[in-house]
Design brief:
heterotrimer; A mainly alpha (612); B mainly alpha (164); C mainly alpha (469); A: 612 residues; mainly alpha; two-stranded antiparallel sheet; 24 helices; 2 strands; 75% helix; globular; B: 164 residues; Four Helix Bundle (Hemerythrin (Met), subunit A); 2 domains; 8 helices
Amino acid sequence: MMDKILFLPILMPLVLAAAIFVIPEKLRRAKEAMAVFAALMNLAVAIVLFKGNIILSLPWLGKGLEFSLRLYNFSSFIIAATAGFGFLITLYSIMFMRGKEYARQFYAYLLISISLVNGAVLADNLLAMLFFWEGLLLTVFAMIAIGGQFAFKAATKALIIVGITDLCMMAGIALTGHLAHTLTISKISLPLDALGSVAFVLLIIGAISKAGSMPFHSWIPDASTEAPLPFMAFLPAALEKLLGIYLLARICLDMFKLAPDSGMSIMLMVIGVVTILLAVMMALIQKDYKRLLSYHAISQVGYMILGIGTAVPAGIAGGLFHMINHAIYKSGLFLTAGAVEKQAGSTDLNKLGGLGRKMPVTFICFIICAASISGVPPFNGFFSKELVYDGALERGNLFYILAVLGSFFTAASFLKLGHAAFLGKSSRENEKVKEAPLPMLLPMVVIASVCILFGVYNALPLNGLIQPIIGTIRLNGHNFAGFPPNTMLVIITLVVLAAALLNHLFGAKAGGSGIKAADHIYHAPVLSTIYEKAEKRIFDPYNIGLKVVGIFSKIAWRLDRGVDWLYDTAAPKLAGISSRAILKLHSGSYSKYLVWSLLGMLIVIIFLTHSV
Amino acid sequence: MLITLDIVILILMILAALWAVMTRSLLRSGIALALTSAILSVLMFKLNAPLAAVFELSVCTGLISVLFISTISLTQPLSYEEIIKHMKDRFRRFRYLPVIVILAGIGLSFVKVRPNLILPPPETETNVRNILWNFRSLDMVGQVIVLLCGVFGVVILFKERVKK
Amino acid sequence: MFLLFILLPLFSLIVLNLPFRAMMKKAAFWWLLVLLALQVYLAIGYVFGFFGFDLNAPIYPLSFSLNVDNFGCVALLSTAVVLGAVLLAAKYIIKEEEKLFNFISLLFIILAGSNGLALTTDIFSLYIFIEITTVASFILISFDKEKLVLEAVFKYIILSAVATVLMLLSIALFLLVSGKTDFSAIHAVLINSPHSLIVMFATGVFICALFIKGGLMPFHGWLPDVYSSAPAPVSALLAGIITKLVGIFTLMRLLVSVVNFDNPIRQVILFVGALSVVAGALAAAGQSDFKRMLAYSSISQVGYIVLGLGAGNALGIMGALFHLFNHSVFKSSLFINSAAIELQAGTRDMNKLGGLSAKMPVTSTTCLISSLSTAGMPPLAGFWSKLIIVLALWASGNYGYAALAVIAGILTLAYFISMQRRVFFGNIKEEFAGIKEPGFGLLLPACLLSAITIGLGLVFPFCLKLLKF
């Protein structure tokens, strides 16, 4: 009976989401109260289940396809993190969603997403996990699409990109199941031989696309401007990273034996590095607060993938730690963007400015989170990035250098963002801006404090959460808590950060304002052409894919016309001709009918008797 | 000798039937029908089934012909021109009939039949009553129903005319 | 005991026509309903074993050659259902009491005849009851005495007379060969001399006679004219009972219980069935008169039943039997709907009708349900029977015929949907703007029959026992 409690994190949010749908429109406060209550309940359940170790297995479809859920340290950790974020975001959304007509759907979808994530994380059977994973497709689509009339296109883009990668993942699951003869995750352990590599690649395509790495990333910036902001703070920032990296970790650590010098590892690291750099370059030139943040979200995933791809203990620990850290500070950053959007009415950087004086708490939280993401000590981002650098360095200098370069650009772009939005002169329409209301401030403050906490007291997450996940065998005696041992790395990081600051000051003076701080990079010789093309979305794999699909669809259309002609014209004409012919035969003269009958009889009799 | 007599009677019956179909006057058709039944009953007498012959004679020649002739008397005869117009091509209409008959005859002559026919014993009077009441009681019920049906039919179909 | 099924209607008829007719007229309707309900109850009860005692025990001192088996029960059941629907429809359509009373008397005769047909075990009695039913139907068809009807019924009489003569010829031959007229006796003899020329000849003639009576191509000439010009409840009666029982049920009896059902006969039946299915469907597709289209559709569906028979295995016969019952139900419902439309809109021409579903929603719905059941759409009853027939054809190796049945099913769906669209959907024309639903008396049988179709479709998998024999 104890194991049935594992149904609770999955079913309870679903049921409460259904309740939200049912609550009549008039009781608006009731909706919000229900949403908060649901998130709180979920948090409570998560805390209860934390660090538990329960396995639930129900026969489902037979033949090894059971519905098995497994609560162990990793999954309970993710559930707790999800619940925590869910609660904070829900609290935040109360103020943000007030007055918007899609509020009810938003709360419901949010709860459903929590439920689905819980299910996907708990699932121990690949098929069950796939079931929950796919469900997230729908809630992502729904939550983007309710944002407005242009949101539908962005939602469709998200659906298609993530859907295609989910298909790859399905193929991967099928192949894995075939190779391992079981679909239970905790029992799978495959070597990376030829077929195993194929399965591995297919599976991680699904995982990293969910996390939002390149080249599956192009829906996130589009969604960021269209979808309601708490969605951005919750899903792409927190949930999807948690879920995607969770699966990636399980694939690399549990299901396949990822060795440090295998081709797969190098591939992962390359993907990670490419993601870091390309995304952060794009982020530099953005002029919208939310789009900028979304590119950063993509970029940071690169660090996680790089970390796990190194397959050394430091790197893996770094990757996992970065996952939780990123979730924390990225959602914090998005929350500040939301506060700005709600109070100042826009997120266009050209229109913002000087908000630091008017929204001090928001500004401070922004500083803390931005410092975390840039890797400034003693915040949490610094420690996780150091671990990732450590691991990357062990694998190769090139990776390390590129990662540090990414860090440089990250810092530069956040300096630009902070300067443009919060410093400088405030324009006239921003005169009346006040600080955000309390329910919105509270989550930001909580998150900022956790940033500090995880940074300063990093033994708590590392020893308590991350290292048990990796397991003592793999850790090989390392202990990553406390200040990073390799002081050389720390010094290099600090130098890079200082360089970023100098770069920013130079650019700001050259451009005249905070926004233009990155323009000198924008207009650099090779980079400017690339940037132009990127702005036109030529490099967007989604658009390229659409063009190819367009050719196919033209061919299919021609085929379809042909088949249509066959059905619409040829067959009915044929039927019509024969029908008329038959009707002509029925002349009404009974003697003719009699003749038919007798003729028929004659034929029948001859047929019957000729063989005798 | 007996066989040829049967064939002569059969040919006579067919001729009478042909006359019933081809003749111009409806009344003569009815009479020809009665004649056909009479010849048939003669044949039945010859085949040693006296009771069947008696039934055939009384029902078909008697009752049916009376019914037909009384019905015909209710109708209005067509005028002479109409009769001519209707019947002028009657020979042409049935021109295929002899052809078919001859062909059928030739065809049948190729057929070699070895029938295992069990001829039931010729019935006597008491036997008939036995058969009708005991073995074929269901059929008697059926006959009653058919008779009732006929009566009803006539009543229903003709009652309104009388009223009018 | 089942003899009462025949005797009761007979006696009721006699009694009801005695003096005190004023009181009898009202009683007639209700008494017939009671009898029909009793018949339904007994038929279902017999099959499911409600009754503990043997219902076939003869009543002393009369011994009748009657036997009830599951075959017969299906026939009894479908007779009762269709007669009930026709009775209710007739009560609504025929307004004068005198005419209604005559109609009901004739219905009693048909009831007696059909029951006898279903229950008998003797080939000559079979012939007599066929004749009863046929003659009663002659009178029923010409009930209204219009010129068009009389011409149609005249054709029917001629063709039916030819069929009767052929039947009699074949019975005589069977009697000559076997010496008795009992089903089992003839069967015993025929098994032993299967390929004798006379036997084959007699079988062929009998089958052709039944084809003529049942309205299969190319022996069907009388059917479209009669169905379309007869008064509406009578068309339902014809389609539901008379063609079915007299033609097809007798064929089933013959093939299963009497004749040695081997390959040449099977080929003939398959071919005629397939021809009926296809030609009937094609002819129906080109019709613009609602009732005529239903007539051709009947030909097509009867072709399906015969196809099922032709498959030759137990599954096929079961499918044929089930389709027989189903067809009675939904075709009667369709004819009642056509009666409703004719009554309310005054025309049967589908090109002139249109958009009636807004004003006559119940009729439109029941028509849609019955059409879909005819076309074989799950989960209605027609789907199951067609599925069984196609499976039986496939199982017996007649792949071409099975494919043909499926394709013709598509054609059936096509013309029914086109009919539905032309008559019920679309925009309503001005002259029909004021019509309403017909009264309760017409809606009730249509709804009941549709309910039976749906219900049977849903519970069919649990009722397979009804059709095992």
